[in-house]
Amino acid sequence: MKFLLSFILVLLSSAGHSSQALDIAMETGGIRVEYIASSQRGIVRVYRCDQCSQSYYKFSSPPVIIKSGQQISFNEFLKDYWKAKFPTLILDKESLNISKVVY
């Protein structure tokens, strides 16, 4: 009986919701960050990225940075990003601007 109820709930929840991804994740083999502090804008050049459609991606405000599961400051990231082995860029689906960097 529990199995049947679980099965029905799964069917109902999957049939009623069609979700779309809001962001795109791009895993890279390396990055180089160029940042202009006065405008708080920058770009991230990507290396060894088969799924990337561009050689660099922009950000118009400092993105959220996650290092080893912990959020760090953008200034700390600027000093440390070159150590990232396989950084992942989280991009806005519409604009392809960077919203988060995870490494």
Q: Layout of helices and strands, plus pairs?
A:
Elements: H1 2-16, E1 23-27, E2 30-36, E3 41-47, E4 56-59, E5 64-67, E6 70-72, H2 74-80, E7 88-92, E8 98-102
Parallel strand pairs: 5-8
Antiparallel strand pairs: 1-7, 2-3, 3-4, 5-6, 7-8
Describe this structure in words.
The chain is of the alpha+beta class. The chain is built from 2 helices and 8 strands. Residues 1-16 have low confidence and may be disordered.
Content-based structural category: alpha+beta
- How many runs of DSSP E, i.e. beta strands? 8
Q: What is the overall silhouette?
A: globular
Q: Secondary-structure element sequence?
A: HEEEEEEHEE
Low-confidence stretches: 1-16
**Helix segment tally:** 2
User: How much of the sequence is in beta strands?
Assistant: 35-45%
Mean pLDDT: 86
Gyration radius from CA atoms, angstroms: 18 Å
- Spatial gap, N to C terminus: 44 Å
Measured as a percent range, the helix fraction is 10-25%
List the defining traits of the structure above.
alpha+beta; 3-stranded antiparallel beta sheet; disordered N terminus; 103 residues
In short:
The protein is of the alpha+beta class and 103 residues long. It has 2 helices and 8 strands, in the order H-E-E-E-E-E-E-H-E-E.
